[in-house]
């Protein structure tokens, strides 16, 4: 009979302010052990890029007060390799080592999930977009070009976190060997099983050769262990609520012994644009948590705190009804700790339960970071984007080029084509990736939308007229077999009445990697506009921008891209961390793609709106 957590929650007693004593951590005789004593891992997943660095410690303290002793995190390759061969593990939220050290100082163990593939509702599942420019490279396969790129990434990552492993006295107790590979194997039946096996082992051996120490683990649905498990490596299950199923699957794949762990225990779920916000009841999650505690099952809440998909980091899914399902900016996830770091009823239910199983009193819940609904601020300047873009030098080609061919990863591209003869009929772009606003002579004539599988519209193009197509990348797919088809922009011929339009295409790049400088000018409704508001604050606090009256676009706050908004919902507000506001002058810049209604002010609220759904 396995020992119950009520007598083994030893690591929850670690003092705050010093590293978790992880040097004695091991997996022995089917148990997690600390200096020979059996322990359980009670973990929560949070991701360092989705939380301002200034709030990392607060979030760790929230986890500790909930009764957790471990934090799990993915590492995002494309977040750290900012351009081919350009690496950043130091600036701002990219300081992964500082994140891990801070967790250790708060008495938390760390589980590292380095990928290279992470899923995580993250753009391209963590892969750099430019990998697709190498015709010899195929991601997530036993492919030399891909494996060479993975090795370079893992070498840089190891250098960044070296000294922080348990064997070195640091907080990192386990490292994941690839991620949910069993799911991928089940979907990529076009690849021989021996090739899947070769790839899986190549990544595992690469981790070891690069210097990542044991113990390793894999994570998959318990019914997918055949594809994802590795001999001698601990298999953990994702989303498995049935303890008997968990133990049976682990025993079969791991020489009839544990330990038993659910590496992704879902207290909430992910959310897409134009779909209802998903919620899961606190009582259900507390009940499942109790089942794990009573049966000696270790677990990791995915997510215990989601945070925010800032900038262009959100990924996408797809299904039979939608060619793409872009993830919303909020990664609230209906998690126990809300997007803004608040204790929810779900948090309180889990904390109360964990207190019952802890031999010591849990820490007090940290004070909530202040939140304010600031007064509305007037728009102080605005600029027509089409006019602004046309002052730049375009790329000219016979056919539209993809973002990747243009050397651009994210943001927008304006495609322009002048017609010397009048024509009318059906404009069709089957290869639209992902959202387009179409203009004729500067006047909006319609929208194309991969989310709703809308790839064609009727147009009337007079003599000597300009067709303009402003295309947005809404996030590369991060899960499933379609991850290998992830180029953006216009990736197929543009057809008009089934005839291909060729010759003289102009392409203006608009990556929006920095907040644009607004040069005040007159604007017209229906044309894309950049709005600016400059204002003064006497004090700073967290807040939310109310975007319910706007159409579609992105927002910069003092240079920080805080993410996308879109009137279809369910998200109608954008979280603004108070640590990114200034006492004194502040500047908000909004790129509004649709501009169906001229905007005169920017409004704030002190609470998120994630429930409503507005469909065209």
Automatic annotation (TrEMBL):
Provide the Beta-galactosidase galactose-binding domain boundaries.
528-586
Q: Which SUPFAM superfamilies match?
A: (Trans)glycosidases, Galactose-binding domain-like
Which parts of the sequence belong to the Beta-galactosidase 1-like first all-beta domain? 400-510
Q: Which GO terms describe its molecular function?
A: beta-galactosidase activity
Gene3D superfamilies found in the cross-reference section: Galactose-binding domain-like (2.60.120.260), Glycosidases (3.20.20.80)
**Alphabetical list of Pfam families matching this protein:** BetaGal_ABD_1, BetaGal_gal-bd, Glyco_hydro_35
InterPro entries registered for this protein in UniProt? B-gal_1-like (IPR026283), BetaGal1-like_ABD1 (IPR048912), BetaGal_gal-bd (IPR048913), Galactose-bd-like_sf (IPR008979), GH (IPR017853), Gly_Hdrlase_35_cat (IPR031330), Glyco_hydro_35_CS (IPR019801), Glycoside_Hdrlase_35 (IPR001944)
The record's EC number reads 3.2.1.23
Q: Which family does the UniProt entry place this protein in?
A: Belongs to the glycosyl hydrolase 35 family.
Record's protein name: Beta-galactosidase
Q: What is the lineage of its organism?
A: Bacteria, Pseudomonadati, Bacteroidota, Bacteroidia, Marinilabiliales
């Amino acid at each position: 009979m396995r020992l119950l957590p009520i007598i083994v929650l030893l690591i929850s007693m670690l003092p705050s302010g010093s590293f978790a004593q992880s040097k004695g951590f091991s997996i022995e005789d089917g148990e997690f052990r600390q200096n020979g004593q059996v322990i359980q891992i009670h973990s929560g997943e949070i991701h360092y890029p989705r939380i301002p660095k200034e709030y990392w410690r607060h979030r760790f303290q929230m986890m500790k007060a909930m009764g957790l002793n471990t934090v799990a995190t993915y590492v995002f390759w494309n977040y750290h390799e900012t351009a081919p061969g350009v690496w950043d593990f130091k600036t701002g939220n990219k300081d992964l080592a500082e994140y891990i050290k801070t967790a250790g100082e708060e008495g938390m163990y760390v589980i590292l999930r380095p990928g290279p593939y992470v899923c995580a509702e993250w753009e391209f599942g963590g892969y750099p977009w430019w990998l697709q420019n190498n015709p010899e490279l195929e991601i997530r396969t036993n492919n030399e070009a891909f494996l060479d790129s993975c090795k370079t990434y893992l070498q840089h990552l190891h250098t960044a976190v070296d000294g922080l492993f348990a064997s070195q006295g640091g907080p990192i107790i386990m490292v994941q060997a690839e991620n949910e590979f069993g799911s991928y194997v089940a979907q990529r039946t076009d690849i021989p099983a021996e090739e899947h096996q070769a790839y899986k082992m190549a990544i595992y051996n690469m981790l070891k050769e690069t210097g990542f120490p044991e113990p390793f683990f894999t994570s998959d649905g318990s019914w997918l262990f055949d594809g994802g498990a590795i001999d001698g490596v601990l298999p953990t299950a994702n989303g498995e609520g049935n303890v008997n199923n968990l133990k049976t699957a682990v025993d079969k794949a791991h020489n009839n012994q544990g330990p038993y762990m659910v590496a992704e225990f879902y207290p909430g779920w992910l959310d897409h644009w134009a779909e209802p916000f998903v919620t899961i009841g606190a009582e259900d999650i507390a009940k499942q948590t109790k089942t794990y505690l009573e049966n000696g099952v270790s677990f990791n809440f995915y997510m215990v705190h989601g945070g925010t998909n800032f900038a262009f980091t959100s990924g996408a899914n797809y299904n039979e009804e939608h060619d793409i399902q872009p993830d919303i900016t909020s990664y609230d996830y209906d998690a126990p700790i809300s997007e803004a770091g608040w204790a929810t009823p779900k948090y309180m239910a889990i904390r109360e339960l964990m207190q019952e199983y802890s031999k010591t009193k849990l820490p007090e819940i940290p004070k909530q970071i202040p939140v304010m609904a600031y007064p509305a601020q007037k728009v102080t300047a605005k600029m027509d984007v089409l006019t602004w873009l046309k002052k730049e030098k375009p790329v000219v080609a016979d056919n539209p080029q993809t973002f990747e061919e243009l050397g651009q990863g994210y943001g927008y591209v304006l495609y322009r084509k002048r017609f010397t003869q009048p024509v009318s009929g059906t404009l069709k772009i089957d290869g639209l990736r992902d959202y387009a606003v179409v203009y004729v002579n500067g006047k909006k004539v319609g929208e194309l939308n991969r989310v709703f599988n809308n790839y064609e519209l009727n147009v009337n193009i007079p003599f000597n007229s300009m067709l303009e197509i402003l295309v947005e990348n809404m996030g590369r797919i991060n899960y499933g077999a379609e991850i290998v088809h992830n180029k953006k922009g216009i990736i197929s011929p543009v057809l008009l009445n089934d005839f291909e339009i060729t010759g003289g295409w102009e392409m203006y790049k608009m990556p929006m990697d920095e907040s644009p400088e607004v040069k005040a000018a007159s604007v017209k409704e229906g044309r894309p506009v950049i709005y600016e508001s400059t204002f003064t604050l006497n004090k700073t606090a967290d807040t939310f921008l109310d975007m319910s009256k706007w159409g579609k676009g992105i927002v910069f706050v003092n240079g920080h891209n805080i993410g996308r908004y879109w009137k279809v919902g369910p998200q109608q507000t954008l979280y603004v961390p108070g640590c990114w506001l200034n006492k004194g002058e502040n500047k908000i810049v909004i790129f509004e793609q649709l501009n169906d209604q001229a905007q005169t002010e920017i409004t704030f609220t002190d609470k998120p709106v994630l429930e409503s759904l507005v469909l065209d």
